[in-house]
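Project outcomes to date are best conveyed with an example. Our students and postdoctoral researchers have been running inverse folding experiments weekly, and each run begins with a structure described purely in tokens. The record below, which covers 338 residues, was selected by the lab manager from last quarter's runs and is presented without edits.
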């Protein structure tokens, strides 16, 4: 237990630090102090997140892809800026566990299995963005729990978000994040070029049709949305741009089979390269410290995230945007509209 960071600051200080840092105001010393508090609060989510991650691996189908991540600082500050009434101390997705399954039926089966779990963690709320997609086309099922334990009560009350999505919903989300990295936009929180936003709304609708028709390309092509997407692509050529993004090559990396730990991913959009650093589970403190350090010194064209999966292959499937691998999304879109 000692390797996991504990909460060092009261929630009132965490709330104040989040507000100050996201505002861009304050002296250099004040911002450095705020960042130190934010980083500690984020790192403290690592233990409860690991508990949920292990539980999800036990409950998910064998074919599921499961990963966990601590939210990026850039995403935290962007979210606080976008929602002025949100507090750093009550943000629900600082610790996130992602489960990718094969079908919509498996999503709902997994949701029911989690909801029926006999544990002390307190259910807070759920968001069914599959039945009711977001305006930007995002589809996924979210469950939010408050961590509870009699043995490790120092983490009690920290929120963990569980995201359950299908492989095709994941392809869409990956393409969004990939274009964000290339353009320097933030489409996933509503910021970015209007044409990019519209493209992904249409792409999501096509993928939804594909899943709901039993994966029939012909059924999708018969829908009038295809014509709209064809005309849109002819004018804006966003799919054409995505097609030009080549998967990151030449990554030499190996982890002993069955090794448990964390991956620090550092992607370079300018050179289309990704650096991977592996930390054994016992080195979680060093992993979170390196995460904080790299985030504070990263270049504008770099993206950094700390995640955990069971293997390098699972890592590439769970976070393909860090390897610029969106071939399957591009190929499906081309099947629909060409």
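After processing, the design step wrote out the following sequence:
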């Amino acid at each position: 237990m000692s390797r996991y960071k504990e909460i060092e600051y009261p929630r009132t200080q965490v709330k104040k630090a989040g507000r100050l840092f996201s505002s861009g105001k304050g002296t250099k010393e004040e911002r450095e102090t705020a960042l130190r508090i934010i980083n500690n609060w984020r790192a403290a989510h690592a233990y409860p997140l690991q508990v949920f991650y292990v539980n999800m691996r036990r409950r998910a189908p064998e074919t599921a892809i499961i990963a966990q991540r601590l939210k990026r600082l850039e995403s935290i500050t962007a979210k606080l800026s976008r929602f002025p009434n949100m507090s750093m101390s009550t943000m629900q997705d600082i610790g996130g566990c992602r489960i990718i399954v094969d079908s919509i039926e498996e999503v709902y089966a997994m949701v029911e299995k989690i909801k029926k779990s006999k544990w002390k963690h307190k259910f807070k709320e759920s968001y069914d963005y599959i039945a009711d997609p977001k305006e930007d086309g995002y589809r996924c099922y979210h469950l939010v729990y408050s961590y509870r334990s009699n043995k490790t009560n120092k983490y009690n009350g920290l929120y963990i978000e569980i995201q359950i999505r299908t492989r095709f919903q994941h392809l869409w989300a990956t393409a969004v994040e990939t274009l964000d990295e290339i353009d320097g936009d933030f489409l996933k929180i509503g910021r970015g070029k209007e044409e990019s936003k519209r493209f992904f709304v249409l792409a999501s609708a096509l993928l939804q049709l594909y899943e709901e028709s039993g994966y029939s390309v012909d059924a999708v092509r018969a829908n009038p949305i295809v014509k709209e997407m064809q005309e849109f692509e002819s004018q804006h050529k966003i799919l054409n741009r995505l097609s030009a993004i080549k998967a990151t090559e030449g990554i030499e990396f190996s982890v002993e089979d069955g090794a448990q730990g964390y991956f620090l991913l550092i992607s370079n959009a300018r050179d289309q390269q990704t650096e991977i650093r592996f930390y054994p589970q016992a080195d979680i403190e060093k992993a979170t410290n390196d995460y904080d350090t790299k985030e504070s010194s990263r270049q504008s064209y770099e993206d950094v995230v700390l995640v955990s999966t069971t293997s390098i292959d699972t890592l590439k499937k769970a976070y393909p945007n860090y390897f610029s691998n969106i071939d399957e999304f591009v190929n499906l879109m081309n099947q629909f509209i060409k």
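Strands lie at 65-70, 95-101, 122-128, 141-146, 159-166, 261-268, 273-280, 302-308. The mean pLDDT is 89. The training component of this project remains on track.
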